[in-house]
Design goal:
32% of the residues lie in helices and 22% in strands. With 348 residues, the chain is of the alpha/beta class. The chain has 2 domains: 173 residues, Peroxisomal Thiolase, Chain A, domain 1 (3-Layer(aba) Sandwich); 161 residues, Thiolase/Chalcone synthase (Peroxisomal Thiolase, Chain A, domain 1). It has a 9-stranded mixed beta sheet, sandwiched between helices. It has a two-stranded antiparallel ribbon with strand order 2-3. The chain is globular.
């Protein structure tokens, strides 16, 4: 989707204190060899605030930075990859009530770790409507400090980090112009994250719904599976990421060499390269690895956290192009290309 006159007016985050991975090894939460191979040095862990409360704190920062008033907003889009609150309850309206306090629509975008980039795309589409307001608030948050998930060992690709993140998408002004937002999928690979579990009734107990690693291993060892199926799946996903990035860059009207930086998912070092950076041909120095390795994989928030870090630390400035690169099960990849139009004010 090539966007026109759509801006990021505000960006914000909430990151709790970090727990060194070495401490997790000491406490028997993760194997020392796996921890070292990951390249991750620490993970953000929140023991008091809920996912939505962290999203609210991030939104307060983003709205303040945007200069928009509550009455400017047409909608709120909220997302999370893990538990947001009680069943038959609305997390988006909880965030809306504690941020804008406006009688506008609030909805949840459930698309795994790609959800905030997809929300950006939806927000841009909403703001092209003639009767739309001037802004849409996009929020995300996850807290993995629950019995429902083992943040340290559930996935072989990542350690799950707690966080909140927010964007104010505007058709009036901003610190960055959104040039394109695109996504592509390989739906025939959806069974990789489902294999071995029935769709109805639920097979896994409610206290442990996240069980990513064993499902992937079960898929690789399914009856009739070939010895190279996983390699072929990874290769196909890498091709998908490359195709998605190429489309996003083309719609933005720039080349890969025009990119100043890339804000990406907080995967472990090897899968980060094999699944995302290498297929697109992006050198690690352009990415946000040195920052994300101190955070972990913050689910929906990763690209937003990376962009905020680059902007607030002055690593990107006016005229720079930044690629936001995300991925999720399905399998699907997505990206956004933004051009920085204003440098960060240290006092903001």
């Amino acid at each position: 989707m090539k966007t026109g006159s759509i801006h990021l007016a505000g960006i914000g985050s909430y990151l709790p204190p970090t727990v060194p991975v070495a401490h997790a090894v000491r406490d028997g939460l993760i194997d020392a060899e796996a921890a070292e191979a990951s390249g991750i040095t620490s993970v953000t862990v929140e023991t008091a605030l809920s996912a939505t409360d962290m999203a609210v704190r991030a939104a307060e920062v983003a709205v303040r930075r945007s200069g928009h008033r509550p009455e400017d907003f047409a909608a709120l889009l909220h997302s999370g990859a893990h538990y947001q609150g009680p069943d038959s309850w609305s997390a988006p309206h909880h965030v809306l009530d504690r941020t804008l306090g406006r009688p506008v629509t609030a909805l949840e975008v459930r698309q795994g770790c790609l959800a905030m980039l997809t929300s950006l795309r939806l927000a841009a589409a909403l703001l092209t409507a003639e009767d739309a307001g001037d802004a849409v608030l996009v929020t995300g948050g996850d807290n993995f400090s629950t019995p429902r998930v083992d943040r340290w060992r559930d996935s072989e690709h990542a350690m799950y980090a707690d966080s909140g993140a927010a964007l104010v998408v505007s058709r009036v002004r901003g610190f960055a112009e959104v040039l394109s937002v695109v996504s592509r999928s390989v739906p025939e690979l959806e069974s990789m994250h489902r294999y071995g579990e029935p769709l109805l009734p639920p097979d896994r107990p409610a206290e442990r719904p996240l069980y990513v690693g064993p499902r992937l291993r079960a898929w690789a060892g399914r009856p009739g599976a070939g010895p190279h199926d996983m390699i072929e799946a990874v290769t196909r996903y890498g091709e998908l990421v490359a195709e998605t990035a190429a489309q996003g860059l083309a719609e933005a009207g720039i080349d890969r060499d025009d990119l100043a930086r890339v804000a990406h998912v907080g995967f472990h070092e090897d899968p980060l390269h094999s699944l995302l950076l290498d297929p697109v041909g992006i050198p690690a120095k352009l990415g946000t690895w040195e920052f994300m390795r101190t955070v972990g994989h913050a689910s929906v928030s990763d690209p937003v956290l990376g962009l905020e870090h680059l902007w607030t630390t002055g690593q990107v400035t006016e005229g720079d192009h930044v690629l936001l690169l995300g991925a999720t099960e399905g399998m699907e990849a997505g990206c956004a290309v933004v051009r920085i139009t204003a440098s960060h004010d240290a006092g903001a």
